[in-house]
Design brief:
Helix content: 25-40%
Radius of gyration: 17 Å
Number of helices: 5
Shape: globular
Strand content: 15-25%
Order of helices and strands: EEHEEHEHEHH
Length: about 210
């Protein structure tokens, strides 16, 4: 199926968030989980910049994507859990950390407003993919993120990345553990080999349809 994708903007603060009403699907996860790489694999082109340095992304990056005849939407690469830590492991304190928190809080605020393509006003409901490293199920930071995202009321699903790093037996074992931890199916995908990409698009298509609000 044909996929059209383009980079739209990088946002450093709440004031820069798009307000055009397009549906948004956020990629959330730890800094080294492979959000940018997965976006490139999903759209079959290199539109998202990747870095060998975990936590390099400090911005919310918006990509406008249309698959087949489906309505366009934004794929959003949010700063990872490690966005508040430097490569050395030391915390980024003060104004920088506060600004990161403001950015993510504002993104999940349904009151952003704007005019939707159907003529209604209000930000479309936001869907979320929580990306977790399938090699390391049960990390505390992932479980904390899941608990918080579940409390927001946004449609949210969990996806296990880097499945190509697992043996067949590990895929079965880790898959079962992830399903137990996150109370439901957790597809395992690989941006490197393309494993699970079709299933991931199916999951995205089955997320509850957004509504104006």
């Amino acid at each position: 199926m044909q996929i059209a994708a383009e980079f739209i903007t990088s946002v450093a603060s709440a004031s820069g968030l798009p307000r055009d009403g397009l549906s948004e699907l956020a990629m959330v996860g730890r800094s080294n989980v492979g959000k940018s790489t997965l976006i490139n694999a999903l759209v079959r082109q290199k539109i998202a910049r990747t870095s060998a340095e975990p936590g390099k992304t400090r911005l919310a990056n918006f990509y406008r994507v249309r698959r087949g005849t489906s309505p366009p939407m934004y794929l959003v690469d949010l700063p990872g859990y490690g966005y508040a830590r430097r490569a050395s492991g030391t915390e980024v304190r003060g104004a920088a950390a506060i600004e990161f928190a403001k950015l993510t809080d504002a993104f999940f605020d349904q009151g952003r407003g704007g005019r939707n393509p159907d003529g209604t006003t209000g930000t479309k409901a936001i869907g979320v993919l929580l990306l977790v490293d399938s090699r390391h199920p049960g990390l505390e930071s992932d479980l904390d993120a899941w608990a918080w995202l579940s409390s927001t009321g946004r449609p949210c699903r969990v996806v296990g990345t880097k499945a190509d790093k697992l043996s067949r037996a590990e895929k079965v074992r880790h898959g079962r553990e992830l399903e137990s931890l996150f109370d439901g199916p957790v597809p395992l995908v690989s941006a490197s080999t393309g494993e699970g990409m079709d299933e991931l698009w199916t999951l995205i298509a089955r997320l509850p349809k957004p509504t104006a609000g």
